[in-house]
Amino acid sequence: MKITRLLMGLLVGFALTSCNFTEEIYVNNDGGGKFSIQMDGSQLMAMAGKEMQNDPQAGKVIDSTFSFKDVFAAKKDSIAKLPVAEQERLRKLENYTMAMKMNAAEQQMMFTIATDFKSVAALEDAMSAMTGVTSLGKGMGETNPLAQMGGIGNNNSTLKYAYDGKKFSRKATLLKKETTEVANDSLNEAFSMIYESSTYTVKYHFPKKIKKVSNSAASISSDKKTVTVEYPFTDYMKAPEKLNFDVEFE
């Protein structure tokens, strides 16, 4: 039994659970820095742990880190068959790495995608990247449980960041919706359950003190250099523009 099938089946059949997502950025004085986004599914694993331990494949301990650049090199033949636009999107992810940790016995389920950057403007939408790799085919999906989870993270928008030393902005722009409706199957129902009970947190660290943030729900650290905002995951998926905000510095 595949890991995804087991987890989604449990979601549909039992009570609501949650996954927590944290998008974190460290900005340096020169405008470069570090970016990461983490999915913590420990609550899901706590619910599914016993069932997974009884399945040899699903209960297998995973603790690995890989670079997308290496994966793309191994899948170059498959990538060459993709539309040009998709190939270009994948190339933009070459500097990202992904760490996966899954351990049913320890109720651990964690995925982290990360990269260093020279400018925040160069960052891509990493949430989409977490599942976009499914376009490389079934072979990679079998080694990436998160990728098997289909459309989670795909909120039909583009995400851009900007920083000039005086102001930082996060802006998601909705794309034109597809005309084809997706069938309402059990997998979509499972995703809907995840959305309703999960959170999406942004946490940004800056080299300068923050003067103000254009979001009333934002909290600023005591040293005035970190801003944190927590959103319902339904906002991220259904109304990503609600996560847009600006930060001004002293």
UniProtKB/TrEMBL annotation:
<keyword id="KW-0732">Signal</keyword>
<protein>
    <recommendedName>
        <fullName>DUF4292 domain-containing protein</fullName>
    </recommendedName>
</protein>
<feature type="signal peptide">
    <location>
        <begin position="1"/>
        <end position="17"/>
    </location>
</feature>
